[in-house]
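G., the chain you wanted modeled:
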Amino acid sequence: MATKSLPFPLTGDQSFYEALGDWIGDVFYDIFPEKGLELRDEQVYMAFQLEQAFKKKSVMFAEAGVGTGKTLAYLLYTICYARYTGKPAIIACSDETLIEQLVKKTGDIKKIEDLLGLEIDVRLAKSREQYLCLQKLEKASMHSDDEDLDDVYSQLPEFVYGKGSMTSFYPYGDRKEYPFLGDEQWKQVNYDSLQDCLSCELRHRCGQTLNREFYRAAGDLIVCSHDFYMEHVWTKDARKREGQLPLLPEASAVIFDEGHLLEFAAQKALTYRTSLSNLSVVLDKLSSNNIREKTLYLVDRIIEQHDDWFAKISRHTDRENASERRSINRHPDLISSSMTLKASIDELLEELVFESELYVIDEYDLKIVEEYLEQVLFSLKLFVEDDGAIIWLEESGSDETLVIMPRLVEDILREEVFSKSIPFIFSSATLAVKGDFSYLANSLGIDKYDAFSVSSPFDYEESMDVNIHIIDEISKGDIQVELLNAHQKGSLLLFNSKEDQDLFRFASSHGINRSPIYFEGDEEISTLVEKFQLNESSILSSHHLWEGLDVPGESLSQVIIDSLPFPPKDPVFEAKRKHVNDPLMDVDLPYMLLRFQQGIGRLIRTSFDAGSIHIFIKTEDARWMDELTAVLPVPPKTLQP
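Predicted structure as C-alpha cells:
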C-alpha cells in the first residue's frame, strides 16, 4: 500500500488539524462554488463538527437531512485522515446495494476526484456471500441444465483452471458480474458457510481470495457493508489463531453510513444457523469415504435423530405468526431430543479423531464435517441452556433452518469496537428520535459520544406533496395501480416485507399498463437500480431500499409506501420488547418513525427534484397521524374512499 500525499501543504507552524481546517474552508467557501456547487451552511456546519470527532478520536452521531451533502463532508475528512495516518479508512454502508451507489460513476467519490483533481484509491470489500464459489459452481453445472449457470462457468478467467502465472491473476467472481442471475440462482453458486476455504485446493485462484488481496491494499478507502464489518469484528481473533489475516485491515477511522441500522448487522453476524438439509449434505461427504462400519452406523443414527429433532422443533413453533421467523416453545420433549442429538454428535467427533489417524478420509471433507458439527453442537448448547439467546425457525420451501442470535449485542460492541481510540462517525438523516440519540447509543453500547443535527436545505413546500390514504387492504392494490398508471415518470414502491411485495406482484401488478417494472430479487439489486435510474418511466418495487437509494430527477418522482414500516412480530423484536417498560413506545414506534423518514427521503435528492409521496395506512393506524405529521417535511393531505 503506497501512502498518498495530502491535498494541502503541511508546514512547521501548523498542526495537521489546523491545516486540514483551512483546506476544508477553502474547499467549501471557494473551490466548490467556483466549480458550480452551491454553498450550503448546513454542510459547512457539519464539516467543522466532524473535525472535532477526528481530533478527539471519538464517536460522533452526525444527523444531517437529505441534501446536506453529508457524504461529501465526511469523505473529505476521512480521505485526508487516512493519508495522514497511513492507514485506510473504512466506510461501512447498510447493505451491498449502497456500497455500489457510493462508488458509481455519478457518486460522491467520483465527484470529489473531478472537482479537486484527486486520485482516490477506493476499493470494495463485499460480504463473502457476494462472491462465486468454484466448488459449488462446478457441482451446480454438473447437476443442472440451467443455461445461466453454464454462462457463469464460461465467463471464468483462463487462469482458474489453466496454468497462468500468479502475476496474471486478477479479481473476479463478484455478484455484480452476473446480473442475469436471480437471487435463487445465485444461492446455487455463491459462497456459503459449508465451504471450507482454508483447505480448498482452488483457494489461490478463487475470486473471493483475489478480491480480498486487492481491497486490503487500498491506500485511502475500503467500502464494505455493515454485515461484513461486523463479521470482521466477530471473526478477527479466531482467524488470527488459525494463521489467517482478519477480513479487514486495521483502519484509521470508521464511518457507519445509515448508522441507525448497525445493531441489526451486529446481531446477524453473531447468529448461528442450522438447517434440516445441511447436516445430511455434510455427512454424505463423510459416508463417501472409506470409513468404518461403526462410524457409518453412527452417521445414520445422527441423521435420523436430526430429522426427528427438526420435526419436534416444527411441531412446537408458533404457527399463528405470519412472520418468516417463527418462535419456538422450548417443550421438555424438545429439550430431551436436543440432548440426545448432542450426545451422538459428541460421540461421532471422537470417532472422527480415530478415522483421521487411519488416513481414509479426504482432508477437505473432514474439515468441513468437523467445523459444521462443532457449529451444530454450539447451537444445541445454546438451545438447551436458554441463556437469553433469541431462537426461531425459518421455513423456505421444503427446508427449515434453526436460527440462534444473541439477545443484545451492546456489551460485545462496547468491548470489541467502541473501546478503540479511533474516530467512529455515524452518518444518516435519521439517528435521533425526537432529538434524542440515546435510543441508538444504548442499543450499540456507546457510553460517550458527541452528536449534532442539521436540517435539510431543500424547500419541501415547493417540491413535494404528501398524501396519506386511509384505506382497507382489499382496495389498496387497485389505488396503487391507478397511481402508477397515471404517473408516467419513475415510481418507487416500498414494501415492509417480501411477502407484501409478492402480494402486490401477484394480486395487483397485472393491472399496470406500462413497463418496465423491476422487482427486487429478480436480478442483482444494483443492476436493477441502475436500470431504474436510466429509464425515466420505469417502476422499481423493493422491500429493502428504504435507506440510501439515491436516484435524482424524474427517474424517481413518485414514492408509494405500501404500509407503515413497523417491525415484525418476530422473535428478534419480541426479545427487545420484553426488556423495555413500554414496547410500543420504546421499540415499535421509534423503529417505524426512523424507517418511515428514510422512505420519505428517497423522493427529493437535489434542489431541482419534485414529486409526490403516497402513504397507505390501515384505519387502525390512523391513530399515529400526529406522529407521522410531526416527522413529515410538509403537512399531508388525508384521503379516504
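The CA atoms of residues 289 and 361 lie 6 Å apart.

Shout if anything looks off.
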